[in-house]
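Exercise 3.2. Students should predict the tertiary structure of the chain below and write it as structure tokens, then compare their answer with the key that follows.

Predict this chain's 3D structure.
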Amino acid sequence: MSAEAAKYQASPLTSSWSPHPEKRKHDAVVSSDDLSEEPPRKHGGWKSMVYILGNETFERLATYGLLANFMVYLLNKFHLDQVYATNVLNIWSGTTNFAPLVGAFISDAYVGRFRTIAFASFASLLGLVTLTLTAWIPHLHPPTCTKEQQENDQCIGPTSAQMGFLLLGLGFLTVGTGGIRPCSIPFGVDQFDHTTEEGRRGINSYYNWYYTSFTVVLIIALTLVVYIQDSISWVIGLGIPTLCMVGAIILFFLGTRVYVYVKPEGSIFSGIAQVFIAAYKKRRVKIPADGEEEGAYYDPPLMKGSVAIKLPHTKQFRCLNKGALILEGDKDGNGCPSNKWRLCTVQQVEEVKRIIQIIPICASGIITFTAIVQQSTFTVSQALKMDRHLGPRFEIPPGSLVVISLLTVGIWVPFYDRILVPALRKITKHEGGITLLQRMGIGMVFSVLSMVVSGLVEGERRASANLQAGSDGIAPMSVLWLAPQLILMGFGEAFNAIGQIEFYNKEFPDHMRSLGNSLFFCTIAGASYVSSLVVVVVHSVTGKHGRPDWLTKNINHGRVDYYYYLLAGMGIVNLIYFLFCARSYSYKGVLSITKEEPHLDLELNQLKP
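Answer key:
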């Protein structure tokens, strides 16, 4: 890091700037006294994106190159049964997606985003090397299973040591993901100058192109990597993602001279805790009536070098306002809090309120992603029992089917961003065409539809297999019948997933953006755990009176279609819950910047009648 860059502390106001704001409440004005002096930006912008997006793309290539076919690896290489393999995959995926919460805390509080990404990239490399060794060294995986052993269910499973080494590799990948994913998007946003129209537009486009860039690369990579894993060699197939991670690390460090660096601002969790504790200590104190609030609350100007946005005082969750209520002895001779665990700023209180408002919206994403995560588990199990031939010689690897979903995202998002949004903008007068919550709700509808279609297709596949399948149990039904459900999952991801990413980055307090971004991965983690829980419950409860359970090892004897319908029902209930939460949600106030001589003023956009 150069000395000039090290001294610079970027202060993005918010990525939610809009000339046509959504419904906004409780606007405020920030004077020039509240702003840090901002030196000229050196580099950053789109010049640094090639390094940031390159690192994230290769990291995703490495982890998705593993995840897309990992179910097949566990079933065919480690000889685990379907339920056990599904639970291993779901629990690891859940843990991996909760890890960004820890990474966000470490990044925002102590080491900063650049160092967090750098350390995490090496951890991911160690994980990929470890997993490559499980395929390369014979003693680290079970002996090869013959076709006769597979048909008679006599394959030898992994030893405790072999399973432990596999889990060690997954653990390293979890550490790596925990550092890279919560920081990559905020680190990219840090590169744009929020004080210029070009910078604000760059931020708005960055979210869509961020998601699209690695999606397109993954489409190319997953077809090649997964084919190599299935048809040539697992060693080479796992070695390619490992080499890609090496390339990601090199590319990331090549950009050190063009990055804009944001310094950590200390523990955000202690500030959150202070609000609750201060409010609890003053729980018996009466809140000032309207008109008597002037000077009653501790509301100092923003500190020099802090993120330059002033959240206004609101009446939502009024009990928390007590944390900023000034009582006798709360301030010292300099007018500062004598005890930060007894007196907080209005800014702290309002930041906590933002988080409280966002959490219910975040929770709604869990069930939505429960449907989407099925494409890496039971969709693969379905594909293994379908005709995967394209022509007389080529077979589609089951793990490559996720490309259909990714291809949907890769085609739809640029069309949505460049064609549909401008058209909708003329009608709705909203910069994004539709609101973020509307975008997320549309994605939820697609996720429900994907489960309904999945159930219908599985019912046909099962009937075909039981009537016409040979000794291998493969139904005479093309695997491309799975395309409709995967396309619907892709639309669900394009609307809901990208909507969530943008929602968290825009609605969270600016210095908590890494934490906000990690919530996106927490919803995926929750979805993985919920999926695992539903699998365990369904496996235990169904299948009595001599009948196999819905998720029995032989998918042709089970009723996976009923499992899909169950997830669709859960999705409908979740959609109703989301609509209830969305109706009561108020968006964060937006600051626009106007330059006047001889000073700079910041004032909020006015709501239009």
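Discussion points: The beta strands are 29-30, 386-387, 389-390, 394-395, 475-478, 591-595, 600-604. The chain has a mean pLDDT of 78.
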